[in-house]
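TODO from last week: model Phosphatase PAP2 family protein.
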Amino acid sequence: MVTLQQLDMNILLWIQEHLRVDALTPFWRAVTFLGNGGWFWIVLCVLLICFGKTRKTGVTAALSLLSGFLITNLLIKNAVARPRPFDTYTQIIPLITRPKDYSFPSGHTCASFAVALVCLRMLPGKWGILPVVLAGMIAFSRLYLGVHYPGDVLAGFLVALLTSTVACRLMRRTFSPQKS
């Protein structure tokens, strides 16, 4: 029986052996840069807050992002303390500077989907879809670059799904018209 750790490793090795292309590495490095420290998503939240029509979306996304950060980076990462793939398996070659923090869950993925899923729920049409596509690309970039296991990315997504759902529900309850 294959363990989850072995499955994670097999997927990473497959990506490294079959999907990595030298010409694409600068692209994936640029994509992952958008998730560094959540800066892109913070800027998006601020921009959304600046305009009346998107203010509620921006506040909701910021709440989801902050909640995701607290759960992922302060609670779970330190409680689980999972080493990075390249620290455990010498076959994995990271294509960016080796992150110093723990691997599980992926903070890049959590931050990206925490905002993107709020946008998907609250913005019209393509304006909600585009952030989700970018979030998916950032999540994949972490695997491509060899700095996260697939399980880390999945866990980051699940935390973001939770925080975005709670943030959207809180916002609806807080600002929905009261019936008398």
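Done. The chain has a mean pLDDT of 94.
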